[in-house]
Amino acid sequence: MSSFRPRTPIDRTAEPPDEDEPGWTEDADPESVARKILLDQLSIKARSRRELEDRLARRKVPEEVASQLLDRFEEVGLVDDEAFARAWVEGRRRSRGLARTALAVELRRKGIADETAREVLDEVEPGAEEEAARALVRKKLRSMRGLDEQVAARRLVGMLARKGYGAGLAHAVVRSELGAVAGAEWSGDDD
Are 108 and 134 members of one domain? Predict the structure, then answer.
């Protein structure tokens, strides 16, 4: 009779062992180790070149080996900062409602060149950004019905500012959306 052993889930976020950990040998080929690290990281999600460089540096892969491999990965299209930036911007706009300013900061943190970030962010329609701000305000307004209108306005403008929207756009959108809600409806009166 065979005994049942549940499979241990694979932790794809785990890094390969450090040099002093079991499984890491001093005679390990740095290029093979680096290739495995890169493929493991890219199998989880797309990453920028700098994120991968940082990962390889933390794993003590020699800089020249890392550079050569990353160049090769770029040649074959496995590492593409422009495609990464486009996907990042689209995903963050959709999931978090971030404005171009906040997205630019995030792309810079990810190591995307300013020129590449500017090109990708220029593709975002200004009208789409305003509509995203309006959608955020409408959604948040549902939970603010009992608040004083000025308090709600202050909170809504603050929320938009934290998401990277400029003060002018934030105030205009909040004023417009609050104006669209009738006084009786805002105060919660049912008359």
Answer: no
Residue 111: predicted pLDDT: 95
Q: Tell me: do 49 and 34 sit in the same domain.
A: yes
Q: Among candidates 160, 52, 151, 166, which has minimal Cα distance to 101? A: 166
Asked if residue 10 is part of any domain, the answer here is no
Nearest Cα to 87, choosing from 99, 75, 103, 101?
103
Pair 57, 98 in one domain: no
CA distance 120 to 106: 13
How many structural domains is the chain composed of? 3
pTM: 0.72
Domain extent at residue 36: 30-75
| Whether 182 and 147 share a structural domain | yes
| Per-residue pLDDT at 144 | 87
Quote the pLDDT of residue 175.
93
Neighbour-count burial for 90-128, b at 16+ CB within 10 Å, e otherwise: eebbeeebbbbebbbebbeebbbbeebbeebbeebeeee
DSSP characters for 160-185?
A: HHHTT--HHHHHHHHHHHHHHS-HHH
